[in-house]
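Form P-L/3: holo structure prediction, ligand adenosine-5'-triphosphate.
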Amino acid sequence: MTEMAGGRLASAPQSTEAVGSKQIREATASPVLLGVDKLVRYFGGVAAVDGCTFEITRNSITGLIGPNGAGKTTTVNLIAGAIKPKSGRVVLDGEDVTGLVPHRLAAKGLIRTFQISREYKAMTVLENLMASPRDQSGEKLLNVFFRGRVYRAEERRHLEKALGVLADFGLYAKRNDYAGNLSGGQKRLLELARAVMAEPKLLLLDEPMAGINPALVDVVTEHIMAMRDNLGVTFLIIEHNLEVVERVCDHVVAMALGSTLATGSMAELRANEAVVSAYLTGGEA
Ligand SMILES: Nc1ncnc2c1ncn2[C@@H]1O[C@H](COP(=O)(O)OP(=O)(O)OP(=O)(O)O)[C@@H](O)[C@H]1O
Ligand SMILES: [Mg+2]
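OUTPUT (holo model):
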């Protein structure tokens, strides 16, 4: 993605050619980036996801809401390829990607963020970013004489990009700290920063505001909106805090008992009787 060159969130100057090709891509692209069609997934005899269907508009933030056990995390896991559906389809950018494994989906720009695991906590903040996926052109080069030099240049570009991303996320001063020593909110920002390194088209977030203090909720939401506006990232976000959903999300999908109850703005869903009753009853009719 040319618009992500250098990994800067701030609006870096773009060449006319890059802007032109981006405009052509946007003019010809369908407004739908992701389609989820009648997804079904059982765990034992329990239908965790049962006919879930919705679409995600390109360059927007879609909220996925619903009571506990509605099937939100399972839906995100199905989209991300972590588990396979019994039936139904996931279509990314017009291509059927149902059942593809996570790294194949990541190569197509569909990324799911994960909490910083124990292994990554023992690495510095900068190492966390350097360890994220990258363009491996050095490995494709057959000429062994040039391989080392190309590889080093690539490493340098990767490092510069990582430092730029850390600066954008306010983590530059922490670059040599162990990730495990960051605060809860800073870890959340690091997860987003790592995702930016992978240049996602679609980013799936499962409760990104959970367990962080209210001031950092604002910081995280601002970064998410900046990634949409400046990097063209599309988001699907599971979130229980409906005020955050109302403030951040362009569209909202409400689930209960494994299927989609309604879609619309948060204001529309607040006025939707089926959605209100699902929250009161857990989704039982
Ligand atoms: N690995 C699993 N094995 C067995 N049952 C599961 C598994 N994962 C989810 N379930 C069940 O599937 C249903 C949907 O769970 P899921 O975690 O997708 O809901 P959720 O909407 O994300 O809930 P929450 O808001 O609590 O995170 C629940 O009944 C849950 O108990
Ligand atoms: Mg969940």
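COMMENT: Residues 63 and 245 are 6 Å apart (CA to CA).
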